[in-house]
Amino acid sequence: MNGQTHRVERIRYEAVIQDLKMMEQLAAFTPMLIGTPPLGIDVAASDIDIACYSEDLDYFETQCTQAFGAMDGYSSIRTTAQTIATSIVRFASRDWDIEIFCQPIPIEQQWGVRHYRIEQRLLTLAPRVAPMIRAMKEGGLKTEPAFASLLGLKGDPYAALIELENQTDEALRSALLLIPSGQ
Fold first, then answer.
1. CA–CA separation, 24 and 56 (whole Å)
2. What is this structure's pTM?
3. pLDDT in tens, 11-46
């Protein structure tokens, strides 16, 4: 192979979602695809993330178990995220790990969705940072810490990104211009 590494491409994330009819199965929970694949900054270790909303986490878990319980590695856990009761369903399909994150608050208020929206804005304002973020992710950083590092944000990277939500596009563009192109 002329010294080049050969990477087998896995099936596209959209095909997995479609094949499993995930959005249809989760329709009662206002599902929203978030995470790195739809942002175009996914790496080999990236997973498929879907945010959901339900006032009744027991009902959510029951519906997920019925729909996806036979999938490889299926698990469902209860935890707390940002002081909010949370259900996380995980399983694998076609070389993708899948995580469905549900809270009893509207998805637009959930941190995962809010992070996704700000990351989407940043990438739209400065597409040149996508390969930088991807390289940082390949080096082991999670998405939010990679963005925070690139932007020089201090403190908790997850909270720091939320702080960017109300920034104007012009303010974000100015911050992005400070990033050296060779980084």
1. 19
2. 0.90
3. 999 999 999 999 999 999 999 999 999 999 999 999
